[in-house]
Amino acid sequence: MSETLKKVPLFTPAPVLVAGIAIIATRCISVVMLANELGYEELVNFVHRSAQAWDSTVIFIASQLIFLFELRCAFTLMHGSNRGRWGYVATQIIVLGYMLMASMGWIYPEIFSIDGETNAQIIHHTLSQKLPDVMVLLLLFVPASSRAFFRRR
């Protein structure tokens, strides 16, 4: 981990730095907010319920791995790695696909699902929750300085 932090490029464009910091901040703050909202007992119950069946356990472990992978992608993309940028895109596609399928009742268990009365409401709520991630992706792909930064590596 220390090697990751030591090799910082001299001229990292501002949109890439903002995107990387936004990924790290939103992920860490969301974990803290979830822990605060649930409280200790509910957090322990959530982990216990997730460990009741193998499919819930697999999805819970996968969510933790995606969290860690997103953090790794944030650090590597700030260093100019195109793999970090595309890795973040891949995680967003996986997360969005799972959230939509679980919310619409197509797959079980529905650990990370969104409530809604109709499929249109579910899609709207899911996409509105993913709006910050879309903004981060725009910062990584739209500005010319970001594209040039990832092209030169």
From TrEMBL:
<keyword id="KW-0472">Membrane</keyword>
<keyword id="KW-0812">Transmembrane</keyword>
<feature type="transmembrane region" description="Helical">
    <location>
        <begin position="56"/>
        <end position="75"/>
    </location>
</feature>
<feature type="transmembrane region" description="Helical">
    <location>
        <begin position="12"/>
        <end position="36"/>
    </location>
</feature>
<dbReference type="Pfam" id="PF10767">
    <property type="entry name" value="YbjO_DH-like"/>
</dbReference>
<protein>
    <submittedName>
        <fullName>YbjO family protein</fullName>
    </submittedName>
</protein>
<feature type="transmembrane region" description="Helical">
    <location>
        <begin position="134"/>
        <end position="150"/>
    </location>
</feature>
<dbReference type="InterPro" id="IPR019703">
    <property type="entry name" value="YbjO_DH-like"/>
</dbReference>
<feature type="transmembrane region" description="Helical">
    <location>
        <begin position="87"/>
        <end position="108"/>
    </location>
</feature>
<keyword id="KW-1133">Transmembrane helix</keyword>
